């Protein structure tokens, strides 16, 4: 493959900047969960874009925020660690903000005095006027020398191809790291856990989803009596309070049934197989400071 390019691109920014929506738009698949709630992304997720002359491996990272536990600290460390070996860095900021956030100032300080190739990605431009977009671009460009600036709408996929073109220009020449059919390095187990957590985020009250941890205890492929392949999946949802457990289960178990139904529908669509799923809810008050949980996001 003459003149072929390949490399890693780290997506970084504060919570709710639209990083996961951007990743899904770039990949063309829903591999990262997206909600309007902060701190949705907890793990390092890789998405792969195969183009005619390049392979781009995107690394979606947890949003930068003020840590309140070892779990939060591990999330932030994972995000910063992802930029060290990246060929290109995308700093995703929201167009609607009229000043540079404290979190983004900290990110820019980390990038300073390094030879990083950084693209400023101004997201959600569909929500404000062109004049305000130009204003936020100037604000950031005055304090950092970006390799490129691309205004986008990740939700509406506006200027996504322009962003891909800019990234490709900056990548080093090299052979592809993954097969051309692959679009993520996530295991099926990880995809299942993320799907269940996504449904919890969308269905439960504001304060509860960030106090849960989803773990696949068993995932086994078998054939049913008709000879069809089916997955048996056992899942535990850990929460930090007994009162939260009651809310997650709901009256007569209705909320847990809803989480299970919506999760199973999406899991079957993603895996392309039928799923027999069982979900339990357990209380683990200090899981956010438990190393067995925090190690899974690195």
List keywords for this structure.
single chain; 298 residues; alpha/beta; Rossmann fold; GMP Synthetase, Chain A, domain 3; six-stranded mixed β-sheet; three-stranded mixed β-sheet; 35% helix; globular
Describe the overall structure.
The protein has 298 residues and is α/β, with parallel strands linked by helices. It has 2 domains: 5-170, Rossmann fold (3-Layer(aba) Sandwich); 188-297, K homology (KH) domain (GMP Synthetase, Chain A, domain 3), CATH 3.30.300. It is 35% helix and 24% strand. The protein contains 9 helices and 9 strands. The protein has a 6-stranded mixed β-sheet, sandwiched between helices. Strands 7-8-9 form a 3-stranded mixed β-sheet. Helix 6 (188-203) packs antiparallel against helix 8. The longest helix has 18 residues, at 254-271. The protein is globular and about 60 Å long.
């Amino acid at each position: 493959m003459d003149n072929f390019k390949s490399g890693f691109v780290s997506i970084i920014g504060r919570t709710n900047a639209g990083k996961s929506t951007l990743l899904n738009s770039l990949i063309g698949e829903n591999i990262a969960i997206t909600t309007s709630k902060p701190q949705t992304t907890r793990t390092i997720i890789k998405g792969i874009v195969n183009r005619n002359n390049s392979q781009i491996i995107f690394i979606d990272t947890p949003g930068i925020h003020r840590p309140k536990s070892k779990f939060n600290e591990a999330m932030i460390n994972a995000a910063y660690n992802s930029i060290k070996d990246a060929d290109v860095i995308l700093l995703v900021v929201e167009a609607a903000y009229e000043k540079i956030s404290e979190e983004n100032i900290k990110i820019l300080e980390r990038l300073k005095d390094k030879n990083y190739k950084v693209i400023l990605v101004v997201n959600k431009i569909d929500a404000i006027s062109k004049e305000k977009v130009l204003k936020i671009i100037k604000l950031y460009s005055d304090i950092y020398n970006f390799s490129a600036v691309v205004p986008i709408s990740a939700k509406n996929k506006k200027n996504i191809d322009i962003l891909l073109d800019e990234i490709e220009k900056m990548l080093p020449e090299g052979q592809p790291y993954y097969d051309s059919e692959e679009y993520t390095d996530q295991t099926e187990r990880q995809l299942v856990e993320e799907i269940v957590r996504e449904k919890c985020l969308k269905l439960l009250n504001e304060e509860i989803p960030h106090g849960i941890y989803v773990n696949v205890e068993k995932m086994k492929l078998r054939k049913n009596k008709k000879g069809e392949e089916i997955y048996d999946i056992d899942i535990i949802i850990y929460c930090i309070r007994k009162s939260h457990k009651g809310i997650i289960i709901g009256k007569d178990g209705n909320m847990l049934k809803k989480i299970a139904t919506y999760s199973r529908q999406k899991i079957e669509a993603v895996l392309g197989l039928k799923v027999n799923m069982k979900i339990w809810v357990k209380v683990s008050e200090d899981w956010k400071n438990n190393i067995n949980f925090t190690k899974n996001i690195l």
